[in-house]
Amino acid sequence: MLLNELPEECLLLIFGSINELKDLINCYKVCSKWHFLIAERARKAKYLIGNTWTYGQKDYALNRVYYAPEECINRPYLSKLFVNLKIVDISPPPGNIISFNAPTYPVLKLLRDAKHLKGLIDDPSMDYSDKLAHFPNLEMITINFESMVNFKVNANVKQIYSHKGRMSPFTWLPVVFPNLERLHASISDEAAAQYVGSQLRNLKIIELDLRPHQMSNLVFGFQFLDSCPALESAYIYAQTLSIIIDDYTKNKNLKDLVLSFQSEIDWDQLRMLLSKYPNIKHLAIRYNKTLEDQHVIHIISSLPKLVLLDVRGSYKVTKKAAAFVRNYSERYGRSIKFYFRRDDEKIAIDWPQFSTRLERVSCGLNFMKHCFLKEFLYLPRFLDPMDD
Questions:
Q1: Range picked from 161-165, 171-175, 191-195 for highest mean pLDDT
Q2: Whole-model pTM?
Q3: Do 280 and 255 contact (CB within 8 A), yes or no?
Q4: Which of the ends of the chain has fewer CB neighbours closer than 10 A, N or C?
């Protein structure tokens, strides 16, 4: 039997396993029958992802289609094929510069015709201040914070992904994006810079890369967290010797916290920081050079709702701390999972719902599932809330 003689149901199953744009286009051109079936398969695609970067693991699901940087996605029929696109990745290859103002911009027609478009992934280091003018219904964007002063108020935006910038433009966040729910950003200042804006009342997930100009400079990134009263999950990657903490401000909503310090943070500062979040359930303090066994004992004792403690890479923590956690749990009737060996893979077995897949778009606005176990560099661009 020839391939084209298979029942349509079988062909749809075969086409459903094709996730490369070039392969779908080639099949689309074979005959009228395949033309129709490929159109059916393309309607299932919600994410159009570019193969621009070397990292990332392809998820061969119906809702994803991948394309190579050299492929043209300005073909007129693509907007008719991919009618349900929700997130499109147009990140340029390294070294390339693109502009939304260029009349021949390759994907502008595809994006304009995408009636369900909610997210746009591009290079956040570029100045795309006119992005929201072209696509006012976007809810997930990558931006350059330095150009935020030129943005108009947009209540639709829920997620922002940005690369390195200064703290001062953050003042505009609650003004321009009053309904922001997730923020991923890197802060780098030559001098100590405080956040002086109003509260971000709807922010639930924050991921910050804190890098002062010099290691000895103070970092006020944790002070910024105090302006997020609804914050539930935080991932902080810091390269500094000292942090500023206001221990009078508490956040009882924070449940998930990842701290990855690439320098020696004093234990007293870390203790003060943890005291601000008394209801933490999932805590990771990775690669900490000062954390010791007695500190683990204090953490367990002072956080009554803690169920997961991950200190992998903190080389001063030993099996003595593990024994204490085990005995403490038995004595007080608590169930606490503790991981301290750098190569401990048991955490993935104990928590199979937590993903380690490196992907640009993750399905579900779920920090623990899509962020907790990953390195900061490989956090998703967007977490699709899947609410429509």
A1: 171-175
A2: 0.91
A3: yes
A4: N
